[in-house]
Design a protein that fits this description.
alpha/beta, 7-stranded mixed β-sheet, 11 helices, globular
């Protein structure tokens, strides 16, 4: 079987084997409904409370509640659709947001809300000065991602939330933290962020489980109604196996040797950056490595389509991403946002490193890219 070099960890990560064991036990041995009254169910309910507190600890969360959801998309949709906002109030959303924020924002606009999109710079982060120009006392909701899924660029959500509250004290500030959580330190106590979305499958946890943190005093209505689970915020029997898997993934990614994991990803990304820069002619680095999560490097190759290069690398067992920047429904939006010239516009590849990667894999990847770029572009030189 061909060895797989997986460098698309921003899309999803391999589940940690210990998570599988924990979830298997919960599925087969501790399958009881947390809402029942017998001892086994009470124990499960207590474990869910413990998991909730573990994740809040990893977020350095202020007073507030953490609600489990089905993932980042549900958390983001809940934040945008169900957070308190005035019909005549302004909503500000980053132009580079993930579809699970950008699409709800457009739906709110279609419903009659005054939605403004904050411009971003070429590294994928919000332009602070242009963001400030959008602020006024009518702002009721802001949603700015913590880290870009396209480029890894990190927004200063502490600054942006402070600027928002200074001008519009009653505004609610939401941040999609899916690509940031587990990759950079998150300390919500040092921000004025009200709502923060996270997801387990980006940190070697299970798919189908995420959470939304809601600061105390912030008004958010349920998206789902029913039996009143999650303190009435998210009805439906709790996904206990995935909640336990999420808790372990958080412990492993953040609460145990975070600095070591961060340093390793940063080191590998630096080596990839240096190798591409020195070995690949006309390779344009999009990610600002001085202000980004340590695992993502997005580049644009000259005179080649990213999708074509992606499939060429598959023959070597190398799996990379194009990011949503190059997917069909995003293409026109992100080509303009990333300010790429004609030769590089179609050649975007996103490399995202995980804890399973090894340094020698970087050399294999760069060597394969060099070979395939020669093959894919040689006919254009004839």
């Amino acid at each position: 079987m061909k060895k797989i070099i997986y460098l698309d960890n921003a899309a999803t990560t391999a589940i940690n084997p210990e998570v599988v064991k924990i979830m298997t036990d919960a599925l087969t041995e501790n399958y009881y409904n947390p809402s029942a009254l017998y001892a086994q169910s009470i124990e499960i309910s207590d474990n869910i409370k413990r998991a909730r507190e573990t994740i809040k600890t990893a977020l350095h969360a202020p007073e507030g509640e953490l609600y489990f959801t089905s993932g980042g998309t549900e958390s983001n949709n809940t934040a945008l659709f169900r957070a308190r906002k005035q019909k005549n109030g302004k909503i500000i959303v980053g132009m580079g947001e993930h579809d699970s924020v950008f699409a709800p924002a457009n739906e709110l606009k279609a419903q009659g809300y005054d939605v403004k999109f904050a411009p971003i710079d070429a590294d994928g982060t919000v332009n602070v000065e242009q963001f400030k120009d959008l602020l006024d006392e009518s702002v009721s909701l802001v949603s700015i991602m913590h880290a870009s899924n396209e480029t890894g660029g990190v927004n200063d959500i502490a600054l942006l939330s402070k600027l928002t509250k200074k001008v519009a004290p009653k505004a609610i500030f939401h941040s999609d933290g899916v690509q940031a959580f587990g990759k950079i330190p998150v300390n919500l106590r040092n921000t004025e962020v009200d709502l923060y979305s996270i997801s387990a499958h980006k940190i070697n946890g299970p798919k189908g489980i995420g959470a939304l943190f809601v600061r105390k005093g912030v008004s958010v209505k349920p998206l789902l109604y029913g039996g009143g689970q999650e303190n009435g915020m998210r009805s439906g029997t709790e996904n206990y196996p995935s909640i336990l898997g999420f808790e372990y993934a958080v412990k492993n990614a953040i609460l145990n040797d975070f600095d070591k994991k961060y340093s390793q990803m940063f080191k590998y990304r630096e080596y990839l950056y240096a190798s591409l820069s020195s070995n690949i002619e006309n390779c344009k680095i999009i990610t600002d490595i001085s202000n980004s999560v340590p695992n993502i490097l997005t580049v644009a190759f000259d005179k080649v389509r990213g999708e074509v290069l992606l499939h060429s690398l598959e023959r070597y067992g190398i799996l990379v991403g194009t990011g949503s920047a190059c997917s069909s429904h995003h293409e026109s939006r992100f080509k303009a946002l990333l300010e790429l010239d004609e030769n590089h516009r179609d050649g975007v590849i996103r490399f995202s490193i995980g804890e399973q990667n090894e340094m020698d894999e970087i050399d294999e990847v760069v060597g394969a890219i060099k070979t395939e770029l020669f093959t894919l572009t040689k006919f254009r030189r004839i």
